[in-house]
Amino acid sequence: MLSAFTARPIVELKQRDKSKIESILAYGDRVLVGLNTGSLRIYRINEPIEEVEPDRNGDQNGDQPEPPTPKVKPADLLREEEKFSRRPIQQLAIIKEAGILISLSDNHVSIYDLQTYTLQEKLEKTRGATTFAVTSNIVKDAGTGIMTIVSRLAVAVKRKVILWTWQDMELSDEATEITLIASVKSLTWATAVKVIAGMDPGFVMVNVESQEITDINKPGGTLTEAGGQGGARFGAVSSSGMGYMGMGGWVPKPLATRLNEGELLLAKDVNSLFIDQDGKAQEKRQVPWPSAPEALAFSYPYMLALQPPSKGGLEVRNPDTLNLLQTIALPNANFVHVPQPNISLAHAGKGFLVASDRCIWRMGAQNYESQIDQLVASGRYDEALSLLNMLEDTLLQDKDGRVREIMMLKAQALFDLRKFQEAMDLFSEAKAPPERVIALYPKAIAGNLSPPESVQDIESVTGEGETDEDQALAESLETQDSKDSKESKESKESKENKETKETPSTPASTIGRSMMGMGRLVGVGGHKKIDSDAASVISAKDTKDDITKTSSQPKTTSHQDRELEGKDLKTAVHALTRFLAQCRVQIKRYIHTDGTLKEALAATSESQSEEYKPPFYYFIQQKSPTEHIDWTARLLEVAQLVDTTLFRAYMLASPTMAGSLFRLPNFCEPDVVNEKLYETGRYADLIDFLHGKSHHRHALELLEKFGKNEADEEVSETLQGPRRTVGYLQQLPPEMIDLILEFAEWPLRTDPDRGMEIFLADTENAETLPRHKVLKFLHGIDLKLAVRYLEHIIEELNDTEPDFHQMLVDLFLERLKIGDFDNDEEKEQWRERLQAFLKTSMQYNKVRVFKQLPADEPEYFESRAIVLSKLGQHKQALQIYIFQLKDYEKAEEYCNQIYVSSPQPLSPTHDPEDAEPSIYHTLLALYLSPPPPHQPNWAPALDLLSKHGARLPAATTLDLVPPTLPVKELESYFKGRIRNANSVMNEERIVARLRGVEKVELEAIVYLGDGKMDSYGRKIPGGLNRRVVIDEDRHCAVCHKRFGGSAIRVYPDNSVVHSGCLRGSVGKKNTNSWR
């Protein structure tokens, strides 16, 4: 249990002193004690001094040890005002700004001087007063806008609330009276202008400025008393409450206290209600008090409840979770006093006072760091987190770090309870380092991070004890909803009632330092720790979240001892995969797969007060606070750990998900993945992984082994054959040409067509491969593969490098000369491919090729003719077609191609006598005047004259015709020439007529204009026929004067201006229309 406060008695009435303490007031280092005799005692509190134990053996030189320092009293009595009042002093308060002390005695409220304690004024209006409340606040004056201190005193006098106000230390003239429905039993200030009045019929909130009274109602259907209806005033005595009448007329006192900013707690009997400063009820469960509290208070950040004097206990609760954190045994204590916030810092409220009739205790608080450590050590992680959330950042060192650490401890405890998904969700929320989470798993998942197997100690606790502790841990981590159940509430109340009964009751006469040493604190692991300064007796059991086992201790529970296996292991691994997948996405925001950061780290300087931490620091687990960290290297290690562990998790729980991890850039460790995938026979995933990690040689070796069916293991059909190897090689970049060529040989020899896809695919990698290396490699395997590759890069990729073109011709000729063909048809296809390439390519060496072509082999005649044509030797080419091939159709087709590709005269009528003979003239000359020993060939010559007579000039053609040839044979030639001449003449006539029409149109435009229309649809006269009418109504567009006999200028749009106004009219639009 928590030890937030330690009780220290500061004032103890002696046995011979028959007085009783009625009221106390603390401010600064002073404590005012009001007695039942009417006396007022003023004490000064002395801070305790730690005692140093002297050396009992003395000095080695024989000197006697120094005498011990006298012990300082907790408090010194400074003075006593015996005649302060005639009756018991029931209540005390001060208004420090006004320097006054307020006292309630003899049913009157009196004002005393704070320094001399002399009576200044007895407020007669307060006759019959039962209680009062004081508040001081800094408010802005509505008239002047200046901040002033306003103090208010509210006094309960039967059914009235009487108010006095001090502003700037001056008391207002008149008191304000507000009448309520019943006698006021308690007053508590909610704000500077709102006070809560507790009565038997319930609570109301009173606005002292507007005097508006608001009932504080219970929320409908919740937090109601037995038999009450939702929406009724909270604390009202219902029909069930009439039972109080049978108890001597006792009615529980209404209690109220301020909690955190803007929140208040109301209580009556065991019922409680949380409200805001406007009096609206909050949806919050009731405080599980075992009995009606005697008093309520708030000491930041805890809620205090004093049990009745017969029980003598002070309960310390968390106002957020409402769980009991500490019970301090204070016999016969009957009231609590917390210094007002305006005279004591909020956090100094730790030094509040608790008093009985004979003793006053001052509560000393441990620092918040120690309190949080205690909660964590006892396994109460929810309470520790709640306390951290309530405390301000300045009160703690590295608050965010503590919250994160405790969340991780809670998540680890949930994991030990086999609540894997809840644990991983909490790890994700805390941004836990993946290394810490992975270490919770066995070696099959965590690898080297897995903790060594724990050895069971022979002196460990019994199995029954382990079960109880495990159950306590499970209960502590349940959700808040389960705490609201009726059964848990009843069991809790009964347990706390039992605690209270077991709490020892010490008589007031024996109270003192001897009592302060009897408290026992149940620490971590159930060991008892004796604290001489402790004033609390803490029971062995507490609320649900009181866990006596800490996660940092050796695991001794049955859950923790049992290894993760079977269904539990798979469930835990499924939860881990979701956590790691989320970490993986976040890590990839900061680092590339090559280990470089996406954004450079900020430059650090010596002037920085704190050590620099990059935005991804929470992924890295620091071994010590002073450790120097290479952030980039550590982040890369974490990324590798996350991906490798995620791979192991997938392989164990969801093997089909492993492939998706490899197809994306990853940080997996190759050795781990390689071994695991090979063992499980997931060869396809192994190849994908090796490709992603750029371990291409290993992958290609495996593919060759599987493709050639040389593996001892049975592989799937998709890995057999060269198809997978070809696909893998296609994905490699050109820089890896040596590796590509090394492993491309066996696919090319096994299946040449599929193997050539490596080099012929329509991909960027294939098109950018070093072509000389590829060509040399293919030529070494098969000449046909080299020819196919050259045709691809020349014809499809349009490579114009002469070496490739010449090499292709050489390979064609080499293949034809070898003559290794299956049949004549295949040989003819190769010859046609050679001839087609010779025709289309312009990059090879024509002279070299012509020399390579045999002159005496008929199968190369046409090839030689094509090369001669490329060299411009058309006559020699035609001689091959006519005299060697005797193919007149090809000769004529050759002439047609040459004629079409040659530049022609601009006009078809151009036929000068000295024109250069055309290619047809050369062909005709070879037909009619062939070189010896060839004879004239009349048939193709006459056919040429009849088809292409128009392209053969008569002057040169008729010279070739021998005189013996009958004119009748030339009939078709002359008809063609005459037809061509008539066409020329008719074309000239048509052109002349068309030019005449064009001339008429131009003259019309000059004389009549272009026929444009104005905005009114009227034709605007133009050209030489344009006219402008100047009459008396026409004005100059510039000066707006009549023209008269002045010189004018007319614009193309018929606007008219004076000649002198010409310069000023530039850019102005004419508003006059033409007439």
UniProtKB/TrEMBL annotation:
Pfam hit, one: zf-Vps39_C
Cellular compartment(s): Endomembrane system
Keywords, comma-separated and alphabetical: Membrane
CHCR repeat residue intervals: 762-936
GO terms, biological process: autophagy; endosomal vesicle fusion; intracellular protein transport
GO cellular component, one term: fungal-type vacuole membrane
Membrane topology: Peripheral membrane protein
Family: Belongs to the VAM6/VPS39 family.
Domain CNH: 18-343
Listed name of the protein: CNH domain-containing protein
Region (Disordered): 51-73, 449-564
Biased composition (Basic and acidic residues): 480-502
Superkingdom of this protein's organism: Eukaryota
